[in-house]
Amino acid sequence: DQQVKQNSPSLSVQEGRISILNCDYTNSMFDYFLWYKKYPAEGPTFLISISSIKDKNEDGRFTVFLNKSAKHLSLHIVPSQPGDSAVYFCAARWGGGGADGLTFGKGTHLIIQP
Amino acid sequence: KAGVTQTPRYLIKTRGQQVTLSCSPISGHRSVSWYQQTPGQGLQFLFEYFSETQRNKGNFPGRFSGRQFSNSRSEMNVSTLELGDSALYLCASSLFGGLADTQYFGPGTRLTVL
Question: How far apart are CA B86 and CA B36, in angstroms?
Answer without folding.
Answer: 9
